[in-house]
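Recap for those who missed Tuesday's class. We walked through two folding examples back to back. For each one, the amino acid string is listed first and its predicted structure tokens come directly after. Nothing is annotated here on purpose, so try labeling regions yourself before you check the end of the notes.
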Amino acid sequence: MASKFERFASAGKGNGLRATHEIHAGELLYTAEPLACCVSNTCAKDFCHSCFSRRKTLLRCSQCKVARYCDVTCQKQAWSDHKRECKCLRSLHPRIPTDSVRLAARIIFRLLSPSQTSPGLCSLEEHESHLCDMGEERREGLSQLSSMLQLYIQQEVPNITQELPTVDPLSLLAKLTCNCFTISDGELREIGVGLYPSMSLLNHDCRPSCVMLFEGETLHLRAVRDMQPAEELTISYIGTLAPTRDRRTQLEEQYHFTCQCQRCTTADMDPMMLCGEEKAWAPLREAIPRLENWQTQAYWSELLYECGSLLDPLDGDVPAVPDCNVYRLRVIDLALDACINLAEWDKALAYGTITLEPYRQYYPDPHPAHAIQLMRVAKLQHFLVHLGDAQHTLRLAYDIMKVTHGNQHPLTSDLIRKLEECRAELDRA
């Protein structure tokens, strides 16, 4: 794949990537394999630790009892990365280190085998740790993780300073907090974490010019709008469906910079995101962490009941919150998820339909989150035999997904099959 971008010194941002040729929306600009990656602990029982596929039944490593694989083929392919990790996991059993510690260990094992690493636009050594920018509490947390890392790898690397003099465990963990990427499936659900050193050069924008998606552990960088030579390539480090203050706070705490993108400096979306009276939407904002925890724990009945109470309060003195308010929108999304898991299809479709107009307004450029929301609603419409609506919604989703995912992505192929099913059923009707 001929490169259409180059590394450059970005004013006020350090390094960055910029276009060297004209780029068109939907172009696949880069494909990368990670220096190291691992399946997240929360997903460890559901995803293959080699190909990152979701499977109902997985074979468990007979030694460490942690790693799981589709079959013997996946297990063999993973062995070069897992063999050292396996001994370390056994040494800590039944404790399992955090994702960041496991990822850091895998990076160390890779660095001990230089033949397995390949140069790119940026090396691990060039990454900033930002330790000097961190508060005492965060540094203390990283220090504890560093101690855990050294204990974890002791079986394989008893003296890291001797075997890898350039690697400091504390600095490595700090670099990971700023530079690793969440690996997700096509529907943006978290699977794992990985370090892709060259892609860490991409700077942030709350209205980015590119998006990252994954197939397994392979990263794909795609343009979501046309770009001219010398224009900077950007991605969003965080979910942008949040008011300016929330976005800036998250970026400052995790990435140590104050976002100066156009969306942040103008706060142009805030009037819509925070519409309604604060006394009405503040309880929604405060409830979201608790609701998201119930979602993680799969407490679907409790989640749906609480969402319903928040969305339709019994107190007649509480003014209504518009559906485009981001906190109400998040609660509606959580209610939609609960309804799907409880097989309450009509209610799920009602909630899903409410979200479509706010999503359209909040994502003016092609964005995976918008396409996936459309596809979720379209599947409900199709299941409930609203065939004309389903066909229309699937077409809207495809117009976005062909740009963000590309026609070869498995999720796009699934969408095209659904669209063909709708057409066939409408022809028979």
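Example two. Treat it independently of the first, because the proteins are unrelated.
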Amino acid sequence: MRVNEEIILFFTVLKWLLLSTLTGCAVGLAASSFIKFIHYVIEEGNRYEHVFYLLPLSFFLANVLSQFVLKQHLGTDTLIAAINKNYGRVEGSLIPTKIVNVVLILATGGSAGKESPCAQIGAGIGSMFANLFRVDDVDRRKMVLCGFCAGFSCVFGAPIAGALFGIEVLAAGIILYDVLLPAFVASITAYQVSSALGITFFYYPLQFVPAFEQGFFIRLLLSGIFFGLCAYAFIRAVRASTAFTTGIPIWRPLKGLIGGLILVGLTLLFGRDYLGLGLNLMESCIKGIPVLGYAFLLKALFTIITLSISRSGSVITPILFIGATAGSVYAEVMGADRATFAAIGFVSVLAGATNTPIATSILAIELFGATVAPYAAVSCVISFLMSGHQSLYTAQVLAVQKSRGLPDQVGQEIGALPNVRGTEVNNPLESIWKWLRYYFKAN
């Protein structure tokens, strides 16, 4: 019997509406529980002014757990690699085993975020449902990706940006259109469940009117370059610091103890603003309140030490902090509105550091309103290009060559790419000259 194409598509859509809604509900419930718990732990820790003195102990314990107990875990890089290569199948536990480490680090003031555990929870739930319904490998990949995206949605408080981020972060330069529907449905459902359970999200619509006669667009273009360079420098610093600490020939928990002592010393010198999530200072930037000119550098330093020593926690919230404070400082130097460029920097540095210009452009719309979003999108794209063939997620696949002047490395994992410095590259001036000759010859 011949079946009409419309009937097949109808049941396909119906199938994914049901599966993704179920996944979104479960992820929303689980991620919300984790977010409430981690916020409670952080608030309780903040009641004690000198809780950061426990950083050496928490780093020591986190490294002991990592080395002797939690040997198999689902990191975000591991999940990206599994989705790209193995249809979402991951060896080891489906529930993130480093939640204890994240709680230890954030409770005592470590500079990290909570996004990675939520994404891991989501991917684990998607994988469990795939096992429950006994789907094939292609559908398994979609279900794991649905949970992955829904986890990001619960943290960002931006369902469309969360869905796109989870898809776009897999490969720099492409979006998997066959996953858009289930990812959107799962993310929106998870967001609604989280909201119903009392999770509050950051949302600050800007009243913004661009003043083009004052050179606003030139400042915007320059800001994209600045934010892209910030993202590139941060990626290189994280990699260099991780390689350095890994190469130190001492017991790993002892490294944690030393790293915690360094953070305690930095906190005594510069204050507690750069510990933990840093949400208060970040919100102040978005409201236009000035910050120290080197605030973004201090946050980067605190985050690099935390991540390279503890190997726990997420990097997204610190990047948002770095972007907002860098944007505020940039506006101060350029004589522009601090709130506007703090919001633009908030999304632009994330776009460059994770190669997700589309998701971060949508994030600007969902968090700051439609007025500033087109200009944030321009900055995000420039930042994405300026960060080069780099990413904080080394399992991300490079799917597009950002410049013909760079080596053709398309199809490789970013972590496996050789450093562009010291390699033979194409001459971009030569490419421009060839284009000009062709243009004038044709006209």
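Answers for example two:
Residues 5-46 form the longest helix (42 residues).
The chain has three domains: 5-196, 212-397, 401-442.
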